[in-house]
UniProtKB/TrEMBL annotation, chain A:
GO terms for molecular function: heme binding; heme transmembrane transporter activity. It comes from Pseudonocardia ammonioxydans. It is found in: Membrane. The chain crosses the membrane at residues 21-39, 59-79, 91-111, 123-144, 156-176, 196-216. Keywords: Cytochrome c-type biogenesis, Membrane, Transmembrane, Transmembrane helix. This is Heme exporter protein C. One of its GO terms (biological process) is cytochrome complex assembly.
UniProtKB/TrEMBL annotation, chain B:
Pfam families: CcmE. GO terms for biological process: cytochrome complex assembly; protein-heme linkage. The keyword Heme applies. The chain crosses the membrane at residues 17-38. The lineage of its organism: Bacteria, Bacillati, Actinomycetota, Actinomycetes, Pseudonocardiales. Signal peptide: none annotated. The keyword Membrane applies. It comes from Pseudonocardia ammonioxydans. This is Cytochrome c-type biogenesis protein CcmE. InterPro entries: CcmE (IPR004329), CcmE-like_sf (IPR036127), NA-bd_OB-fold (IPR012340).
C-alpha cells in the first residue's frame, strides 16, 4: 500500500462487493424513474394514488423475473453442476422474496384508499401470498441443508417446481373473479395505460431491474466470499489433529 | 441415471419415487383447480343474475358477496345509508338488484364504478354493510376521454 489514505482499503472492499458502474447506473435509473413518476399525470379516477403503481407493478414483475432466474439457474446447475449457478439461484430467490413482499405491502397501501380494504381473500392476493411463502420455504430449505451439493440439488429442484406459482399468480385475475384488476399491459390487447403513465411505468421497470441485477450480483459475491472463507477455515493453518490437546475451535463454538 | 452417477441405485430409486409422487400430487391439484368443481367454491362474488337465481335456495340472512356496476342515476344518499342499484352491464338491459348500504361508502364510490358488496337478502333488497370498490385496469389522465 503506497497510499496514506486510511479509507482506501474500505473503498477497495466496497468496490469489490458492489462494483463501480452498475451502482451508478442503478442510481441514475432510479433518479430518472422517480422524476418520471412524480411528473406523470394523476389518474382521472384514483388521482395521486396511481403513483403507487410505479412501485407495486415493477416490484411484482421483478419478483417474477427473479423467480425465472432462479428456475433457469437451477436447471443449469442440474446440467453443469457448477457452484456459481447455485449461488445465482439463491441470490435471485432472495431478491424475489424481497420484491414480492414489497409488492404485497404497496398493494395493501393502495388497496386501503382505493378498494376500502387493506386485504381481501381474492385469488390474486391469495396466490401472491402463497408465492411469497413458497419462496420463503425455498430460503428455509437452503438453510436447513449443510452439504453444499445436496443443498444445491434440492433447492434447484424446488426452484424449478415452485416456478409454477408464477403463471398461477399472473393468470389468477383471468381465471377467477377477483377484486384485483386484470393486467393493463401484459395482455394481448393494447396497453390500457395513458401516455405519461406508461412511460413512467416502463422507466420504473428499468430502475427495478437495474436494482435487481445489483442486489443479485452483490449477494453472489458475498456468498462466494463466504464459501471461500469456509473452505479456508476447514483446510487452513490450524492443525487438525496430532498436536491438538484441546478440542478444536469449531467444536467448542457449537 | 448414467453410469457415471456415483450414488448407489437405492438412493436414485428413492428420489425418483419421491419426484413421481410429488409430480402426481401436483397434477391432481392442478387438475382440481382447472376442471374440478372447486371453481364453484372459489367464486369471489356473485353477479346480479346469479344472486337472483340463488335467492330462492338461500335462507334469509345468508351472507355472500355481490359484485357489479353501480347503475347510473340510481344513487340516493340518506343519513347513514346509501341506496343504489347494482347491474351486470353498463347498458339499460342489465339485470338490476336494489341495494341498501349502511355505513360510509368507499372513497371512490360513485355511479358507474364496480363494487363488491358483502351482505344478505332482505326481501327483494340486498342489505349490505361492507363495500369494496373494484378499480378497473384502465389508467388515464383526466380529460382523456372515456367514461369519467
Amino acid at each position: 500500500m503506497s497510499t496514506t489514505d486510511p479509507a482506501a482499503p474500505v473503498r477497495a472492499t466496497l468496490r469489490a462487493v458492489f462494483g463501480r458502474g452498475l451502482p451508478a447506473f442503478a442510481a441514475l435509473a432510479v433518479a430518472v424513474a422517480l422524476t418520471a413518476a412524480l411528473a406523470s399525470p394523476p389518474d382521472r379516477l384514483q388521482g395521486e394514488l396511481v403513483r403507487l403503481m410505479y412501485v407495486h407493478v415493477p416490484a411484482a414483475w421483478t419478483a417474477f423475473l427473479a423467480y425465472g432466474v432462479t428456475l433457469v439457474a437451477g436447471l443449469v446447475w442440474l446440467w453443469r453442476r457448477a457452484a456459481v449457478w447455485d449461488r445465482l439461484a439463491a441470490a435471485s430467490a432472495e431478491a424475489g422474496v424481497f420484491f414480492t413482499g414489497l409488492a404485497i405491502a404497496m398493494g395493501a397501501v393502495w388497496g386501503r384508499p382505493t378498494w376500502g380494504v387493506w386485504w381481501t381473500w381474492d385469488a390474486r392476493l391469495v396466490t401472491t401470498a402463497l408465492l411469497f411463502f413458497v419462496y420463503l420455504g425455498y430460503l428455509a430449505l437452503r438453510r436447513a441443508v449443510d452439504d453444499p451439493v445436496t443443498r444445491a440439488r434440492r433447492s434447484a429442484v424446488f426452484g424449478v417446481v415452485a416456478f409454477a406459482m408464477v403463471p398461477l399468480v399472473h393468470f389468477s385475475v383471468l381465471w377467477w373473479r377477483t377484486l384485483h384488476q386484470p393486467p393493463s399491459l401484459l395482455r394481448p390487447a393494447a396497453p390500457a395505460i395513458g401516455g405519461g403513465m406508461l412511460t413512467a411505468l416502463l422507466l420504473s421497470v428499468l430502475a427495478f431491474t437495474a436494482l435487481f441485477v445489483l442486489i443479485v450480483r452483490t449477494r453472489m459475491r458475498l456468498t462466494a466470499a463466504n464459501a471461500a472463507l469456509d473452505v479456508a477455515e476447514l483446510t487452513g493453518a490450524e492443525p487438525v489433529a496430532g498436536d491438538a490437546v484441546t478440542a478444536p475451535r469449531r467444536e467448542a463454538t457449537r | 441415471m448414467t453410469a457415471l452417477d456415483p450414488r448407489p441405485p437405492g438412493i436414485v430409486r428413492r428420489y425418483r419415487l419421491l419426484a413421481m409422487a410429488t409430480t402426481g400430487v401436483l397434477a391432481v391439484l392442478v387438475g382440481l383447480l382447472l376442471f374440478g368443481n372447486l371453481n364453484g367454491n372459489l367464486v369471489y362474488y356473485l353477479e346480479p343474475e346469479e344472486a337472483l337465481a340463488q335467492r330462492a335456495a338461500q335462507s334469509e340472512g345468508t351472507r355472500f358477496q355481490l359484485g357489479g356496476l353501480v347503475a347510473a342515476d340510481s344513487v340516493v344518499a340518506e343519513p347513514g345509508l346509501v341506496r343504489f342499484e347494482v347491474t351486470s352491464s353498463p347498458g339499460p338491459d342489465g339485470v338490476r338488484v336494489p341495494v341498501e348500504f349502511r355505513g360510509a361508502p368507499a372513497q371512490l364510490f360513485g355511479a358507474g364504478v364496480g363494487v363488491v358488496l358483502e351482505g344478505s337478502w332482505q326481501g327483494p333488497t340486498f342489505a349490505s354493510d361492507s363495500m369494496k370498490v373494484k378499480h378497473d385496469e384502465n389508467y388515464q389522465p383526466p380529460g382523456d376521454g372515456g367514461p369519467a
